[in-house]
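Hello Y.,

Per our agreement to keep a running log of every chain we model this quarter, I'm adding this entry. I've kept the format consistent with earlier entries: sequence first, then predicted structure.
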Amino acid sequence: MAYRYHPELKKLVEDPAGFPPAEKFVGTLDEMREFAAPLYAEMCELPMAEGVTTCDYVIPTTDGYPMRARWYCKEGSTARSAAVYVHGGGMILMGIDEMDADLSRYVAQSGVPILSLDYRLAPENPRPQAEDALDGYQWLVSHAAEFGIDPERIALMGDSGGAGIAAGAAILARDRGVHVARQILIYPMLDDRTVASDDELDSFLHVWFAENNAMAWEAVLGERRGTDEVLPCEAPARNRDFAGLAPAFLEVGELDLFRDETMEYARRLMDARVPTELHVLTGLTHTYDTFPLPIAEKAFEYRSYALSQL
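Predicted structure for the entry above:
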């Protein structure tokens, strides 16, 4: 049977005003950043969920970089768990300011506080971005008492490129003996070798294409992309040992370039007896949840439920 959009998404696809031409996102890194800037400016202006407050911090990374971070908490919540969030953007775009609306929504629905990290983007930063994420995670662990949370109940969470970085940080944590309660990976970018999709799927992709993916991975890895020199913390699909990794929740759309690598990653986690929950959502594209769809509301509710179970 041929691919088809989810009925709710199909209505937007048929309305150019509601579903902007994704081809505009294809180009050089500078062109992508320039095109995305107005969209990200709009994201910064979206209202936060009621009852959620924020506080900004500066976290010193192990190599001395002052990394911005933002703490979101729900007024009156007694949750003792927390999540460290790594934002999307293909590892080359965005920052924490654009995430206020989404992260406050998770916090409002789950009651679980979130620390959002302004990790360094590629290609300007050659250090594995998972190191920044793990530095932020360990900072929160070391300050758990101040935030009133249990250091054994902190998750790593992210979307798209940020989910790939979170997965890489979970690998580093396992290798260094750092406990992670759970990894929550929303349509994760995991494999630098994913530079093409099947012809039928190509016409359904939105926002993130094989061309974008190849360009982003080249920004992250340079000439090492596709070679045996790529580290598992940089492209988690390169990992060979899944034993002992944090329990995982993974979600991806059926019409997402990252579908197959997400499913394969979940399978390898399961093969290693890592508790794993996988959701493949029929007829949905990458970042489908940025559109006002009932199915997106349901996805946010279930992700918030996953957070509440920490």
